[in-house]
Amino acid sequence: MHDNNLLISIASRFVDSTQISTIQPLGNGLINDTYKIMAAGQEQPKYVLQHINDKVFTDVELLQRNIETVTGHIRRKYEAAGMSDIDRRVLHFVKADTGKTYVKVGEEYWRVMDFIADSVTQEAVTPQSAYDAGRSFGDFESLLADVKEPIGEIIPNFHNIEFRLHQLDEAIAADPVGRMKDHEVRDYVKKIKDLANEMSLSEQLYRAGKLPKRICHCDTKVNNMLFDKNGNVLCIIDLDTVMPSFVFSDFGDFLRSAANTGAEDDPNLGNIHFNMQIYNAFLEGYLEGTPSILTSMERDLLPYAACLFPYMQAVRFFADYINGDTYYKVKYPEHNMVRTRAQWKLFEEAKVSLSK
Ligand code: GN1
Ligand code: MG
Is the pLDDT of residue 29 over 80? Predict the structure, then answer.
């Protein structure tokens, strides 16, 4: 964690120091470190300070340009539509003393955005909020369908399952911390590989020219939306991974967390089932949000997308486990293995539920 005086000095490069009294941790993302900037005598923060993980997002200039393009595009459309309360519906990044929306301090990159007033995050979903989320992420893709500026692939091959399987192969070959000794680890390798070809359908179709890429959010978790106090979706957040991808990214990754009746890292696999009520509610909202963009191929493969994402996440957690936990923050040594088991269970449950 970062030293408080350092945090305050960084924050003061973006906002007036009268707005900064204390800086406290916010949220539970696995990649960046997020803080709220509190002003004296105020209950709610006005700003959010974030340390950008530049091991993951190696091109911070491109990262911020992507985000500014996307937020600017959405803001202009909302303004043109006469929408109310726009500052609570789209993120706004604050310019630093450098004139850019980030600063580099030592070897670290930082940015500040406005805190969205009276907003809350949720970890649990209801059919209603799943429907709203489907609609919101569908709208998000539709709103971005006519972006003219280039949006860079900020993490190349981010949701490319063939690439993730290749990374797993590399981890297995390197076995840097000796985790391949374990029987269970080898069993998972086999289970994953047996389905690799079948699960690589999206990349096969893309190569055949049958599946487009669109600007997607690519981290559509429940906790990447802000809700108002009445449970209505206000705003989509965590725009770091916005990039060209298959729509399967947004559809599948949302359900990976939302339709899971257990936790992403649930040690009790009995808790993990695929909630079809949430699936159907999300599907309904998503289809309503994307009427003019989806092809019939994309629509027909949405059930595949809902299976692909737990599968891909299992591959990613598992490769990180074999690599000795270099990517995802872990709370205990077996954490990535526990996550792998949990995602695999979810994958199996999704397959069964969706083939009924
Ligand atoms: C990461 O940091 P967070 O929790 O928003 C990851 C996602 C994974 C997720 C698993 C850039 O997102 O792809 O699905 O963890 N983001 C990146 O919880 O790798
Ligand atoms: Mg997040």
Answer: no
User: pTM, whole model, 2 decimals?
Assistant: 0.92
Together in a domain, 199 and 249: yes
> Which domain, by its residues, includes 316?
127-354
Per-residue model confidence as pLDDT tens digits over 112-160: 999 999 999 888 889 998 999 999 999 999 999 999 999 999 999 999 9
Ligand nearest to the CA of 256: 1
Q: Which ligand is closest in space to the CA of residue 316?
A: 1
233 and 92 in a single domain? The answer is: no
Distance, in Å, from the CA atom of 327 to the CA atom of 320, rounded to the nearest integer, reads 6
- Same structural domain for residues 253 and 326? yes
Supply angle C-alpha 147, 148, 152, rounded to 5: 80
The CB density around residue 227, as the number of other CB atoms within 10 Å, is 19
Cβ 138 under 6 angstroms from ligand 1: no
How much is the CA Rg of the chain, to the nearest whole Å?
A: 20
Ligand 1 atom 5: residue of nearest CA: 29
Q: pLDDT by residue (tens digit) across 192-246?
A: 999 999 999 999 999 999 999 999 999 998 889 999 998 888 999 999 999 999 9
Are the CB atoms for 205 and 297 separated by under 8 Å? yes
CB-CB contact of 226 with 119 (8 Å): yes
| CATH classification at residue 172 | 3.90.1200.10
The answer to whether residue 119 sits within a structural domain is no
Between the CA of 313 and the centroid of ligand 1 the distance, in Å, is 9
Q: Is 33 in the pocket of ligand 1 (CB under 6 A)?
A: no
Q: To which H or E segment does residue 173 belong?
A: helix 161-174
Cα 199 → chain centroid: 21
